[in-house]
Amino acid sequence: MKIFKKCMIIFSTIFFMNLFSSLYAFGPSSSVIYDGIDVSEFQGDINFSEVKNAGIEVVYIRSSYGTNVDPYFQTNYENAKENGLKVGFYHYVEATNVQEAIIEADFWASVIKDTEPDCKLAMDFEYFGDLNKYEINQIATTFLERTEQASGREMIIYSDAYNAIAVFDSTLIKYPIWVADYGVDEPESNGKWQTWVGFQYSDTGSIPGINGNVDLDKFTDGIFLSGNSGGENGGNPEPETITYVVESGDTLTSIAARYGTTVDELVALNNIQNPNLIYVGQVLRIKGEASSTGNTIYYVIKLGDTLTSIAARYGTTVNELVRINHIANPNLIYAGETIKINTTINSVYYLIKYGDTLTSIAARYGTTVNELVRINHIANPDLIYAGETIKIF
């Protein structure tokens, strides 16, 4: 009997260890693997022709940190592109509160606005100072959401294995992870993300064309921006896109109808293999900020929105938004939710981004600074703020 019990205990232990391992397996998101590196000013001048010849296919470049531009950013970007490497950018976050996260996100979007990366943008948030876990995740969420909004490009999270396990919470798993874990064949499971799109396996690599050490990475095709498979003809997603989180009962057909698009468009934009198989919690990209059906539009709430600001933007009232969306508390709305708006408004509104001026906005929309000043009652034409919305016409 004791032998039987002992055998049962051993069997049960092995069974549950295997079960846990299968539930929380942490491997690559696909079988397609690309050799990569990530670089910054610390690598100095890089010969990207030699890097390419050494078999490197993807390079992530630090474009900025805090509100500073990496001094080698532009040179690294241009030379990597010129030599046919697939390029991604990462930003080192220094924010200590939500407001600073917004400022950094807008700054980063302005730094890379004239570039054409092939890969999703990566948030590198790894030094936390005296911040607690709640504050860290609040800053991370704000930075990720704001950067997607300001840049129109998809985001991923760069994290070491420990922070993925102990610091970042499960609300962030909608963003793919690029994980750092050195001296191992595969990164440690974290119980949240089930796959990785990037695996940084060494920070002491040696690559021809680079003096000194460089980080070595493996990337899957999940690292590429939607619509960019990593092939020679891959492209970037349209800048004007929104993200939608799949809810229970959704189908691609119903989502397409709601946002005035097609199933084929959703399939292509999101690299969906089976149009009949989508999952609750899955994040989809949809072209357009607010899509319309007749006089009804659907708007995805962004960080900082209020019903008052949305109503003003679309020529309706808070009471009307509350009524048609069955909102219980007008003062409580959440970023990422979609609301319905009934409107006949024909005006165009613009969300000011970091680096914008009234002159640049006027030129973009074929109007004048004086007209923008007049219809928006602007006191000082030289003083506008990122995050504010102005009426164009």
Q: Your description of this structure?
A:
With 393 residues, the chain is an alpha/beta fold. The chain is built from twelve helices and 18 strands. The strands form five sheets. It has an eight-stranded mixed β-barrel. A three-stranded antiparallel β-sheet has the order 14-15-16. A two-stranded parallel ribbon has the order 1-9. Helix 4 runs parallel beside helix 5 (133-151). The longest helix has 22 residues, at 2-23. Residues 1-24, 231-240 and 288-294 have low confidence and may be disordered.
**Ends distance:** 85 Å
Mean pLDDT: 82
Q: How many separate helices?
A: 12
- Report the order of strands and helices: HEEHEEHEHEHEHEEEEEHHEEEHHEEHHE
Please outline the major beta sheet. 8 strands, mixed, barrel
Strand content: 15-25%
Structural class: alpha/beta
The geometry reads as: globular
Instruction: Please state how the strands of the largest beta sheet are arranged side by side.
Output: 2-3-5-6-7-8-10-11
- Assembly state: single chain
Computed Rg: 23 Å
The tally of beta strands, per DSSP, is 18
Descriptive labels:
393 residues, eight-stranded mixed barrel, 18 strands, 31% helix, disordered N terminus
Layout: helices, strands, pairs:
Blueprint: H1 2-23, E1 27-28, E2 33-39, H2 48-53, E3 58-65, E4 68-69, H3 73-82, E5 86-92, H4 98-111, E6 121-124, H5 133-151, E7 155-160, H6 161-166, E8 177-180, E9 195-196, E10 198-205, E11 214-220, E12 241-245, H7 252-258, H8 263-270, E13 283-287, E14 290-293, E15 296-300, H9 307-313, H10 318-325, E16 338-342, E17 349-351, H11 358-365, H12 369-376, E18 389-391
Parallel strand pairs: 1-9, 2-3, 3-5, 5-6, 6-7, 7-8, 8-10
Antiparallel strand pairs: 2-11, 3-4, 10-11, 12-13, 14-15, 15-16, 17-18
Helix pairs in contact: 4-5, 7-8
